[in-house]
Specification:
22% helix, alpha/beta, disordered N terminus
Length: 216
């Protein structure tokens, strides 16, 4: 199960790379407007054959150094509760794992920390006023303002949702069969003020663009 995200993420990264070939969205779009939600599904699966599901009680966090840990903070709680709400809209019933559900939902956050340095030069770099760098011209040495800079870092978190089938599927090992995947690029950030709305909006987007995921 360790590498179950690999193929899905490779497909997603290819799609994201293609989408990023145009102008930088940051030049004209806010972070929320440039959010990317990708859904993939098995087109041979009849989702109406399922009726019940269970969901994890915490979210797997995978840091950029490979560390894995389960977390349940306010953002993770909102992810889980929003998925429960959307699954109910689709007609599915949440049950405990002991009730042998048809489906199981797992969530993971792929975190990445980016750092950089901003450097600004000195003001004029110092100079001799007598050279008429400044009007009126007069003698004297102007020391100028020294340059400087600062280092910044910010964190982004992409969300992966896996919907596992726990019912037998033809020619498929059921515990590894994932008929529906969601990848939401970078919807979590160091800006906690926007995380809540981005989580809700983008999970809703994932379900809205998956009309096949329903009970008839």
């Amino acid at each position: 199960m360790k590498n179950r995200y690999t193929n899905f993420i490779l497909v997603v990264l290819a799609l994201v790379a293609f989408a990023s070939c145009g102008p930088d969205p940051a030049e004209s779009l806010s972070s929320e407007e440039s959010d990317i939600v990708v859904t993939l599904y098995s087109d041979t699966t009849n989702f109406s054959r399922y009726s019940t599901y269970s969901i994890v009680d915490s979210v797997l966090t995978i840091n950029d150094d490979g560390e894995r840990v389960r977390e349940l903070g306010s953002s993770e709680e909102l992810m889980i509760s929003t998925i429960i709400t959307e699954m109910a809209k689709k007609g599915y019933t949440k049950v405990d794992t002991s009730a042998n559900p048809d489906l199981f939902i797992d969530l993971a956050v792929l975190k990445m920390t980016s750092t950089g340095t901003v450097w600004y030069p000195g003001y004029w770099g110092g100079g001799y006023y007598g050279g008429c760098w400044y009007y009126p011209c007069w003698g004297g040495y102007y020391p100028g303002y020294g340059g400087g800079g600062y280092t910044y870092s910010y964190e982004t978190g992409s969300v992966v949702i896996d919907l596992f089938s726990l019912k037998g599927e033809l020619d498929v090992i059921e515990q590894l069969f994932v008929p529906w995947n969601v990848y939401m690029q970078g919807i979590l950030s160091s800006n906690t003020l926007t995380n809540q709305s981005r989580i809700t909006k983008n999970i809703q987007r994932a379900f809205n663009q998956s009309p096949y995921l329903r009970i008839n």
